[in-house]
Specification:
40% helix; six-stranded antiparallel beta sheet; 4 domains; NADPH-cytochrome p450 Reductase, Chain A, domain 3; single chain; Rossmann fold; alpha/beta; 1123 residues
């Protein structure tokens, strides 16, 4: 976190940088800082929800970046903590940012879904569709919800595998045919993938996005409507000022609805459409709602067709794109995913049964959705007048609660201190189940409760399928290896401008890839695991009276259709085992469970509750008091999804135990399957063949399956068909300088300066991060080159290269621009550089001198004196060599990293750096050594442009997540103060907003209290507010700092305080030169040795000290060293 770039040491960074006290030193100080009395609230224990300062009329609108509201919401959560409220032109929002508060708001008995804001604006397009409906009070929602539950059930999703594979195959072939060097805009191609998949699977419609250059008009209109809906939610002026935008939105909505109506009309006119297709549109046209007895209206069908396309493609495409980003940023994760795909799928075609076996890939997607949920929050509102959450925050009617996943998904109380790290292992099944059991709603990317995403299983199969197919056949690389994540935001978020390249694996060609993929549609590799499944689909619902005399009763409870399908399958198979079977819902068995035949019950749970056609039966069963079922012979099979950890298999287990308790006889133990990671239908078949039928035949007659029954007579027939930043490849963007000033009295020592920068939009940082700067060479250094090669300032150069280069090619460009912007002129020359120069020497003596610099004299004369190629050329004026060879010897211009010295809580769009200007006599004895970046930065003034990016802090140099419990011990010298200015500024901001914090101590070393006691006024103010206690050491005025010359001296003097804070769990941060870091380490080891001897009464060895120190590095001891 140094304030100086790693490549540019500063002469001012002394070990002796020190500090002083003003007045008498205090040995005792408060161990915690309390919020103001105002924030403590009422005597009842309730407190006011914090909020930013309001503006008249506008409320808090000025707090929100309209182009990147997510960044504003995160900034406010960082500032205010677990909860805060906003008033956006009368739209009252309460953001809850921790798992504890989110979990309370997910209680459907207290809260319900809220659609205020941008979702409400979408109602103009899709009215009371599944996503935008207000809830049960809108009948169309209830009808559509019940109709579509089975259309998106496990069986239906399984049958969508082939069309999903079809579209994913189109994408794979496109990438293969474009070749390995073509940049791929992953976001755009994944949008095409998900849009085409949703359209094909739900309504049998092909957008054919991969076969057209332009975008389908429907898609263009859809994105326009989504964007305008988001913009409308933040409008400031009256409607009359937005007539043009409203007219355009209405036209786009009309295009969406007319297109959907054309699809609907075409299906009705298709002689095979209404009955021959098994897709979502058919379900909406034909299914009768079991509650109201009516079908969905045409308008409701159109609403939901558009809803599927909008909600069903955008979030999945964003998740795909985020997943590719994380895979390419985490090589170990990438490798593990590809190894799992290879191990599971091999060289053959991807099949439906592979999906449930890809457990690590599943964990990766879960972790992606934890870090980067495309919908980063969902709205809730109170069911009644008001609710109190967290025991102290009152939520009232008219306030929309935002369950802010961007924060709650990173809650360290759930996920640990490494919550912000990307670790898929935490999301593997066993640990994921534990998290969901112990912390309900800690992972909620699909929403919550009855209004959760109905298409979750659809999206999950689509994502696993497509990612597995792509990882099986391609290797991927970033087109720009230096890409840092940038966010694009509409109604959702996704990575912005992420380009990758796709390289076919293992010598595959586009032709062989096509052959490999087509195998999944031929030779019996369809979605059904047995031909039996095909005949069972058309088997009789009732087989009463078929051959065989034994009777069987099959009852099911099912919302999505899965258990119903299994019941029908069982009844269809009964005849081959000598049974005749009847099939009905569980509710029909209420008060009448048969006793004259065995009973098989197949049911599921829905968030711990029975399916809608089993609720009456379960209510009856659980209220029995005696042995009413003593003559019932039964078996139970359960279906469930283990993500609902607390209620997993609750109803099947309840039914099984209750029947036995009331006198029933269990034929075989209860069995079950898990939709999360099992092939449900294969599990059911195995249970049926291996457990159920043998037990039924043995106990109730019938007959074993005949030998020829393995060749069934199918009830149906089937057929199958088949300029600078880009040149240098530096991921930086233009920023604006808004302040540049000196921090010291330049007459008393080296210059140290402060630079304040307005960051590019959507760029955010955290305290402890770096700002990477792409500099320009000093003008004086450029002038030296121009003189050495006798070039005029208006000279241009055109560069042609036979291979890769970071120089601008095939264009005429001023020589001065090339020298200033594209190459490192001050880089120390290499041995090869000196040897190359020797080859141009005209006389033997000159050649020998240059060869000496390349060999025996290199360390003493070149390396230690930091001679550049230019320095050497100037030392030998008689040496002549071509300019193109000079350019070839120079490395490309690179970024330098500076610790950011500000907190984003003050202004998330502004960052500052604190740096020392390097301008000292050259070690060669010739001229001066000028720091490239520090001289460049010092030349900037307000209004200048600068190219920067943000680099994330490493090695534990971050504020602790539990700042209320973890004390800070910070040690800095000179401009090493930079990251600690950010830390303390952040603490001061948090304290001003009522947060409680553990103590923070800063040991700061510099030269002179009058020369370079950096930011003294600010630190005095923060110290008075309780944000920090500062101990200084002045190397040139030790008398002013308690006799302490260096920071390590001051640490030793205050070691008793250090002991107490260490026992409270303090973390130590050190920033400065290598000499400072070593000095601090030595004094801390001395102090640790003394404390150990005091505590234990015996000495500790140096080896034991080193072992202890190595154990706390990057855990409780973090350094940032610059030299």
């Amino acid at each position: 976190m140094s304030s100086l770039p790693k490549v540019e040491p500063s002469a001012s960074a002394e070990t002796s940088d020190s500090s002083s006290t003003h007045g008498k030193r205090r040995r005792v100080f408060s161990l915690s800082h309390r919020p103001s009395r105002k924030s403590l609230g009422t005597m009842s224990g309730e407190i006011e929800i914090p909020e930013p300062t309001r503006m008249p009329v506008l409320g808090h609108v000025t707090e929100i970046d309209a182009k990147f509201s997510l960044g504003s919401f995160i900034h406010l959560a960082d500032k205010f903590g677990p909860i805060y409220k906003l008033d956006l032109l009368g739209h009252k929002l309460v953001f809850v940012n921790t798992h504890e508060l989110v979990n309370e708001c997910c209680d459907d008995k207290r809260f319900k879904k809220s659609i205020d804001g941008d979702i409400n604006e979408l109602r103009e397009a899709v009215h009371d569709g599944l996503f935008t409906a207000k809830g049960v009070e809108e009948e169309n929602w209830g009808v559509a919800h019940r109709v579509l539950m089975s259309a998106f059930g496990p069986l239906a999703i399984r049958e969508m595998f082939d069309p999903m594979h079809d579209v994913a195959g189109q994408l794979a072939l496109k990438w293969a045919r474009h070749g390995p060097s073509t940049p791929i805009h992953i976001g755009e191609d994944m949008t095409r993938l998900t849009m085409d998949t949703v359209a094909l699977c739900t309504m049998g419609y092909r957008f054919n996005s991969y076969y057209r250059e332009d975008t389908h008009p429907f898609i263009t209109a859809m994105y326009a409507v989504m964007k305008e809906a988001g913009d409308k939610a933040l409008r400031v002026l009256p409607q009359v000022f937005y007539k043009k935008q409203d007219k355009k939105m209405r036209a786009n909505i009309e295009l969406l609805r007319s297109t959907a109506r054309e699809v609907l009309d075409a299906r009705r006119l298709d002689p095979n459409g209404a009955t021959g297709r098994k897709d979502v549109l058919t379900a909406m046209l034909n299914t009768v709602d079991p509650v109201t007895g009516r079908k969905m209206t045409d308008d409701s069908i159109i609403d939901n067709l558009i809803t599927f396309l909008v909600a069903g493609h955008e979030t999945t495409a964003a998740t795909f794109t985020f997943t590719m980003y994380w895979l390419l940023k985490k090589p170990e994760v990438y490798r593990k995913v590809q190894e799992e795909v290879d191990r599971t799928v091999g060289d053959g075609p991807l099949r439906v049964e592979h999906v449930a076996k890809l457990k690590y890939l599943t964990a990766v997607i879960r972790e992606v959705l934890r870090h980067s949920a495309p919908i980063y929050g969902f709205g809730r509102e109170v069911q009644k007048d008001e609710e109190v959450i967290g025991g102290k925050y009152r939520i009232r009617t008219g306030e929309q609660v935002i369950c802010f996943l961007a924060k709650s998904h990173l809650d360290p109380k759930v996920y640990g201190d490494d919550a912000e790290e990307f670790k898929p292992e935490r999301m593997l099944d066993e640990n994921f189940d534990r998290l969901m059991r112990e912390f309900p709603n800690c992972w909620s990317p699909f929403g919550t409760g009855m209004r959760g995403c109905i298409g979750r299983a659809f999206a999950w199969q689509e994502m696993v399928l497509a990612l597995a197919l792509l990882m099986q056949n391609f290797n991927f690389v970033m087109h720009n290896p230096n890409y840092d994540l940038k966010i694009s935001q509409t109604l959702t978020i996704k990575p912005k401008d992420l380009y990758i390249r796709a390289i076919l694996r293992e010598g595959l060609t586009p032709t062989s890839l096509e052959a490999r993929m087509s195998g999944s549609f031929a030779g019996g590799h369809g979605t059904q695991s047995k031909v039996k499944a095909q005949e069972a689909t058309n088997g009789p619902a009732t087989a009463e009276g078929a051959k065989g005399t034994a009777k069987l009763a099959v009852f099911y409870g099912s919302n999505s259709g899965t258990c119903e399908f299994m019941a029908q399958r069982l009844a269809s198979d009964a005849t081959s085992h000598g049974f005749s079977a009847t099939v009905d819902t569980l509710d029909t068995a209420r008060e009448s469970l048969p006793t004259d035949r065995p009973v098989v019950i197949i049911t599921s749970s829905y968030e711990g509750e029975p399916p809608h056609n089993a609720a009456l039966f379960v209510d009856w069963l659980t209220n029995l008091k005696d042995k009413e079922l003593k003559n019932v012979n039964y078996a139970v099979y359960g279906c469930g999804h283990a993500d609902w950890v607390k209620t997993y298999q609750r109803i099947p287990k309840l039914v099984d135990a209750s029947i036995e308790e009331r006198g029933g006889h269990r034929i075989i133990p209860i069995a079950s399957t898990d939709a999360k990671d099992r092939d449900m239908f294969s599990d059911f078949e195995a249970w049926e063949d291996n457990d159920l039928w043998p037990a039924l035949v043995k106990q109730f007659g019938g007959r074993p399956e005949s030998e020829d029954s393995s060749t069934p007579q199918a009830g149906l027939s089937v057929s199958f068909s088949t300029p600078r930043t880009s040149t240098l490849r530096q991921d930086v963007r233009d920023a604006l300088v808004i302040d540049s000033r000196s921090l010291v009295n330049g007459d008393l020592g080296p210059v140290k300066r402060h630079l304040e920068v307005q960051l590019p939009s959507n760029v955010r940082y955290k305290a402890g991060d770096y700002m990477a700067v792409l500099p320009h060479n000093p003008k004086d250094t450029v002038a030296r080159v121009m003189r050495r090669f006798h070039l005029t300032w208006d000279s241009h150069v055109a560069i042609q290269a036979s291979g890769p280069t970071t120089l601008p090619t095939d264009v005429s460009i001023p020589v001065s621009d090339v020298l200033s912007s594209y190459v490192e002129l001050c880089q120390t020359a290499s041995r090869r550089n000196a040897l190359t120069l020797s080859q141009f020497a005209k006389d033997e003596e000159l050649r020998r001198k240059l060869q000496y610099l390349a060999t025996d004299g290199y360390d003493a004369e070149v390396k230690n004196k930091r001679l550049s190629v230019l320095d050497i050329a100037e030392q030998f004026p008689s040496l002549t060599f071509p300019f193109n060879h000079f350019l070839l010897m120079l490395p490309p211009m690179r970024v330098r990293q500076y610790s950011i010295s500000s907190s984003p809580l003050v202004d998330p769009g502004v960052a500052t750096v604190t740096y020392g200007v390097l301008d000292e006599p050259a070690l060669s004895g010739q001229g001066r050594h000028i720091g490239v970046t520090s001289s460049y930065l010092s030349s900037l003034a307000a209004g200048d442009r600068i190219q920067v990016s943000i680099r994330v802090a490493q090695g534990g140099f971050r504020l602790p997540v539990d700042m209320d419990k973890t004390p800070l011990l910070c040690v800095a010298a000179g401009t090493g103060l930079a990251p600690f200015r950010a830390f303390i500024q952040e603490r001061a901001t948090l304290l001003s907003n009522g947060r409680q914090l553990a103590p923070a101590i800063l040991f700061f070393g510099c030269r002179d209290p009058l020369a370079d006691d950096l930011y003294r006024d600010e630190f005095d103010k923060w110290e008075a507010a309780g944000a920090v206690k500062v101990y200084r050491a002045y190397s040139r005025k030790p008398d002013a700092s308690g006799g302490c010359k260096y920071v390590q001296d001051r640490i030793w003097q205050e070691r008793e305080m250090l002991y107490g804070l260490w026992d409270q769990g303090a973390r130590v941060y050190v920033c400065g030169s290598n000499r400072v870091a070593e000095g601090v380490k030595d004094v801390l080891l001395r102090a640790a040795k003394e404390k150990s001897e005091i505590d234990d009464g015996k000495p500790i060895t140096n080896e034991e000290l080193e072992e202890w120190f190595n154990g706390i590095r990057n855990e409780r001891y973090a350094t940032d060293v610059f030299d």
